[in-house]
Specification:
It is a single chain. By secondary structure, this protein is α/β, with parallel strands linked by helices. The protein has three domains: 2-55, no CATH class; 63-262, Rossmann fold; 266-460, 3-Layer(aba) Sandwich (Rossmann fold). Helix content is 39%, strand content 19%. It is built from 15 helices and 15 strands. The chain has helices spanning 35-44, 75-88, 98-105, 121-143, 158-167, 183-193, 204-221, 254-262, 278-282, 293-306, 320-331, 357-363, 365-373, 386-404, 416-426; strands spanning 2-4, 16-23, 26-34, 63-68, 93-97, 148-152, 173-179, 232-236, 241-246, 266-273, 313-316, 337-340, 409-414, 443-449, 454-460. It has a six-stranded mixed β-sheet, sandwiched between helices. Strands 12-11-13-10-14-15 form a six-stranded mixed β-sheet, with helices on both faces. The chain binds 6-O-phosphono-beta-D-fructofuranose.
Length: 462
């Protein structure tokens, strides 16, 4: 029987150490020791703790995560992502969501904006009560088996956060504030939010107005996190970018948490090129041509292929050929929305739009040869080039990933040049090679990238 343990170099002076007892690599048991006893134990056995291999450590292995942010800033999505990843690492995690509890506890409809008016005393009292119930549930969870309790609500003002710090003083707290002021994304997120049954009695317009008013009420009391509020991370939740980090005490799991927050994780991305178009047959570029009969048959085949995979959102460009490819797929899904993103429009060929490659070669030989020389950096007169598309494609990818969450399946139906750029975002390709990546119409790319592995396959759908 070997005993494996160690001190974790990154963490200073742990409170306790988890010791694992292993026999030929099979875990036979584990026990926790205070660091003090651990040292005494090692000395007793004449062992040097620092020479032993790292197996596991537990120092303050309990953590409260408090989400902060206005409505529709991605808090729930981030909380879900954290939970999934922590659970994957055997860290017992539970989310305590105030909105869900409100919907369960209160029979009457509480989705109307006035309920969130800070001057509505009854509404404020009810929301405070719900918050306190979740705080108590989180406390009990950590005092039992749980490792990480995530409180998912706006926690918009300083007083509320102060109260949380006072009530949850038994374990470390990490505030995570989600910030995102991109108007377009906000609009799209609101559209998804109002899908909840609690908005069912309103027209789409009324529901949007009501949700925006709710945001305005929260805005009127909202205070971003300040340094004196303890451990916190401010996150640009659209771009997975750390805006600020302030750690004033030991925060368990913080290295993992930061990594999960900053990594784009895509479980299943289906990257499809539109079906065959009339322009494709004539070797013409750009334009807004529709699908041929064969192109429609390709769209039908795709629809059949994906009919048993839930695809809640399909992102297309604003061109007819991608939308016509998406529609049959949508029709075979139970619930699916198609979102047309300008960011995924095909490369703008400027003065060459709607010409065939042969016509360009003949009529504009200077364009043809300059592009041939440096296809990646070449910019069509009055149009774009691959390098010039990079920013908008990045933006489209961010939008698609953000809006798809927490779905496991994302579908993008794009164009040849666009899909090349999307592929190269996920898989490193030398820039000069990107304009030559193979983007067929009878196959699609399947990409899956997580913390642990990246998969990339060209698949046939027929
Ligand atoms: O299908 C044709 C097309 O999508 C054109 O609209 C576009 O200009 C072209 O492919 C991009 O491919 P390349 O950069 O190889 O010309």
């Amino acid at each position: 029987m070997t005993v494996l343990f160690s001190e974790n170099e990154n963490r200073r002076c742990p409170k306790s150490i988890q010791i694992m007892l292993k026999d030929r690599n099979v875990l036979k048991g584990s026990m926790a020791l205070s660091y003090h006893n651990f040292q005494a134990w090692c000395l007793n056995l004449n062992w040097n703790p620092t020479l032993l291999s790292v197996m596991a450590i537990t120092k303050n292995d309990k953590l409260y995560i408090i989400m902060v942010g206005l409505p529709a800033r991605g808090k729930t999505t981030i909380a879900t992502k954290l939970k999934e990843n922590l659970m994957h690492d055997s860290v017992k995690t539970r989310i305590f969501n105030n909105g869900e509890l409100r919907r369960k506890m209160i029979r009457e409809n509480t989705a109307y904006a006035g309920f969130f008016d800070p001057d509505n005393k009854e509404g404020v009292a009810l929301r405070e009560r719900i918050g306190l119930i979740n705080i108590e549930r989180a406390r009990r969870y950590l005092n039992g088996q749980g490792n990480v309790a995530i409180l998912d609500a706006t926690h918009a003002n300083v007083e509320r956060r102060k109260l949380i710090r006072a009530l949850l003083s038994d374990h470390p707290i990490l505030f995570i504030e989600c910030v995102n002021d991109d108007e377009e994304i906000l609009e799209a997120t609101i559209l998804r939010k109002i899908d909840l049954p609690e908005f069912g009695h309103l027209t789409q317009e009324e529901a949007i107005r009501s949700f925006k008013q709710r945001i305005a009420y929260y805005q009127s009391i909202y205070a971003p996190l300040k340094n004196h509020e303890g451990n916190h991370i401010r996150l640009d939740s659209l771009n997975n970018r750390l805006i600020e980090e302030e750690l004033v005490s030991e925060v368990p799991y913080v290295d993992q948490i930061r990594d999960f927050l900053l990594t784009d994780m895509i479980k299943n991305l289906y990257l499809i090129r539109h079906g065959e178009t009339h322009f494709n047959l004539e070797n013409r570029i750009g334009g807004d041509s529709g699908l041929t009969d064969d192109g429609r048959a390709q769209a039908m085949a795709l629809a059949k292929y994906f009919q048993h995979k839930p695809i809640p959102l399909i992102f297309t460009s604003q061109k007819r050929r991608t939308i016509q490819t998406a529609m049959p797929i949508k029709e075979r899904q139970k619930a699916c929305t198609v979102i047309f993103l300008a960011e995924f429009n095909e490369i703008d060929a400027g003065i060459c739009e709607c010409l065939s490659y042969e016509e360009i070669k003949k009529g504009m030989p200077h364009v043809y040869s300059a592009r041939k020389k440096d296809k990646y950096n070449y910019v069509y007169p009055q149009g774009e080039g691959y390098a010039a598309m990079e920013k908008r494609i990045e933006r489209g990818i961010k939008k698609a990933l953000y809006l798809s969450k927490p779905s496991d399946h994302i579908m993008i139906i794009g164009h040849r040049a666009v899909n090349r750029m999307i592929l190269s975002h996920f898989l490193f390709r030398r820039r000069e090679d990107v304009p030559y990546v193979y983007i067929p119409q009878d196959k699609f790319y399947y990409i899956s990238s997580t913390q642990e592995k990246k998969t990339f396959q060209l698949k046939s759908y027929k």
